[in-house]
Amino acid sequence: MAKTVRSETLGCTTVEAAGLTWLAETDTVAVPAVRAHDGMWLVIEYVPPGEPTVAAAERFGRELAALHAAGAPAHGSPPAPMAARAWIGAAPMVNVACSDWPAFYAEHRVRPYLALATAAGALDRGAASVLARAAEVVPEVAGPPEPPARLHGDLWSGNVHAGRDGRLWLLDPAAHGGHRETDLAMLALFGAPHLDRILTAYQEVAPLADGWRRRVPLHQLFPLLVHTVLFGSAYAARTVAAARAVLAMR
């Protein structure tokens, strides 16, 4: 059985199909198979829904660690050439390969969405100034260098589907090479069932660098800015709070 998804954004489904395929080729996490796609339609395997059990969460934590360990050519590398100009939700996203994660994150994730949110009036001058300063200190607070991980890229809980088969499946990626803490911070952003068990199982397979909990606001700056761009000033206070937490890390 298959599920058909329609996008109002031309080309979005082609990029999503590339991301799903890139994640699936690692044979780590559960990802629905891509049946067909064009610029507007995407047909994927239908996964009957189930319950997000503790056992599924622990398995998912181990699988996510394995996915990240599969790696990527560079921070910011796209899953396929056509996915260099991609999407996260309905917001445009550009994947630019960089050898340095802090530079990639500041230049291609934080600053572009800060500019969009400011231009749209979702952030006032004071808020924009705080976020601009947070972007400047990314190299100081990024923690030890890590090799580029293979990221889902939009790993909020709504894109983790509990299947009847007892597994957690990944949907709707904005896949690219990046820092593995970014996926985990996004998973925590709006909460996820049994998140503590996911993180514990992940740590058992691939321990995170010291200080990772303190760096969560840094990695949440990007998705919070995306939400500010897409949904307006309702997310401004939370985004500025994350930026202030980043500045306090110095």
Task: Characterize the structure shown.
This protein is of the alpha+beta class and 250 residues long. The chain has a single domain, classed as Aminoglycoside phosphotransferase (APH), C-terminal lobe (Aminoglycoside 3'-phosphotransferase, Chain: A, domain 2). The chain has nine helices and nine strands. The protein has helices spanning 12-24, 54-69, 101-119, 125-136, 138-141, 180-189, 195-205, 216-231, 236-248; strands spanning 2-6, 34-37, 41-45, 85-88, 91-94, 149-151, 160-162, 168-170, 176-178. The protein has a three-stranded antiparallel beta sheet with strand order 1-3-2, covered by helices on one side. Mean pLDDT is 94; it is low at 4-10.
How would you concisely characterize the structure shown here?
With 250 residues, the protein is an alpha+beta fold. The chain is built from nine helices and nine strands.
Q: What's the helix and strand layout?
A:
Layout: E1 2-6, H1 12-24, E2 34-37, E3 41-45, H2 54-69, E4 85-88, E5 91-94, H3 101-119, H4 125-136, H5 138-141, E6 149-151, E7 160-162, E8 168-170, E9 176-178, H6 180-189, H7 195-205, H8 216-231, H9 236-248
Antiparallel strand pairs: 1-3, 2-3, 4-5, 6-9, 7-8
Helix pairs in contact: 2-7, 3-4, 3-8, 4-9, 6-8, 8-9
* Tally of distinct domains: 1
Shape: globular
Assigned CATH architecture: Alpha-Beta Complex
Q: How large is the count of helical segments?
A: 9
State the secondary-structure class. Answer: alpha+beta
Distance between the termini: 52 Å
Low-confidence stretches: 4-10
Using the coordinates shown, work out and report the CATH topology. Aminoglycoside 3'-phosphotransferase, Chain: A, domain 2
What percentage of residues falls in helices of 4 or more residues?
Answer: 40-55%
Number of strands: 9
The succession of helices and strands, N to C, reads EHEEHEEHHHEEEEHHHH
**Percentage of residues in DSSP E strands:** 5-15%
CATH homology group: Aminoglycoside phosphotransferase (APH), C-terminal lobe
In CATH's first tier, which class applies?
Alpha Beta
Strand order, sheet with most strands: 1-3-2
* Average pLDDT score: 94
Radius of gyration: 17 Å
Q: Biggest β-sheet, characterized?
A: 3 strands, antiparallel
